[in-house]
Design brief:
Elements lengths: L4 H4 L4 H4 L3 E4 L3 E5 L8 E3 L3 E6 L6 E3 L2 E3 L6 E4 L4 E4 L9 E6 L1 H10 L12 E2 L3 H17 L4 H18 L9 H4 L2 H14 L6 H8 L3 H12 L3 H32 L1
Antiparallel strand pairs: 1-2, 2-9, 3-8, 4-7, 4-9, 5-6, 5-8, 7-10
């Protein structure tokens, strides 16, 4: 559980000692008996909190927030969270920590290689996210950490559900539309314009903001050939045109000399 030390070391002993903790390699679920009151926490990774009862007021980046129960509260990395003193010290809630690198890898596999920033702190309750967290908890409850692969699969489910359900700077809900013909067209336009240069798949993906893995798969699905093959065909076609132009020029030169 050392990968979550940055967060754990900020939790007061009286809260930590009464908490249930379920941790994998990339995701950890904390079920404390009460909120961490009057203490500032710096989030190194992504955090989501699911309050069963009304949580205390929270100061986030010097702004006051009052949240309701049965909501999903999301904190991006590198923000300061301060929980004000609460009347009921034993309010029930769960909080999930997701390593930022892991969430980025899941997002990249879904086709996006940019930094993910969730835009709303308070979000509607989601059964999909709740079920993903419950699956993660039940696996560790029943089998401990005996299978890291299975725990990782439930961790991916949590991360993917969060990316799909919670509003961010990337609209994963419209994934099928935004990553379809439009992105392939942009890639084709870029290749047609710069095929004569020393461009690579990485250059193309950087231009259209998509991961190489997903781009290659998507392009092949839409075009019937890989990006490498498409780029090679462009260069071959251009070489053929140049040869034909040269042949035409030679024929015209010979005709002029003969005549």
């Amino acid at each position: 559980m050392g990968q979550f030390n940055h967060y754990i070391e900020q939790i007061p002993d009286n809260i930590y000692n009464g908490s249930k903790i379920y941790a994998g390699n990339h995701v950890a679920l904390f079920m404390p008996k009460g909120y961490i009151s009057e203490v500032s926490i710096i989030t190194e990774d992504y955090h989501i909190t699911l309050p069963i009862e009304n949580p205390p007021p929270i100061v986030l980046e010097k702004k006051d927030f009052d949240f309701g129960r049965n909501k999903i509260i999301v904190f991006n990395p590198d923000v300061e969270v301060y929980c004000k003193k609460h009347e009921i010290a034993t309010s029930r809630y769960s909080t999930v920590t997701i390593k930022r690198k892991f969430l980025s890898e899941v997002a990249e596999d879904m086709g996006f290689d940019q930094k993910i920033l969730f835009t709303n702190v308070e979000n509607p309750f989601s059964n999909n996210i709740r079920q993903a967290i419950l699956n993660f908890k039940q696996e560790i409850d029943n089998y401990g950490n005996s299978s890291s692969m299975i725990i990782d699969s439930f961790s991916i489910q949590i991360a993917a559900s969060l990316l799909r359900e919670i509003k961010s700077n990337v609209n994963f809900r419209d994934f099928g539309l935004t990553m379809g013909d439009g992105y392939v067209k942009n890639a084709r336009d870029f290749m047609i314009e710069f095929y004569n240069s020393d461009i690579s798949i990485v250059d193309i993906c950087r231009e259209i903001h998509v991961s190489p893995y997903h781009f290659i798969r998507l392009f092949k699905e839409k075009m019937g050939v890989t990006p490498h093959e498409y780029l090679l065909n462009l260069r071959i076609d251009n070489a053929k045109r140049m040869i034909k132009d040269n042949e035409d020029s030679i024929w015209l030169l010979v005709r002029d000399v003969v005549s």
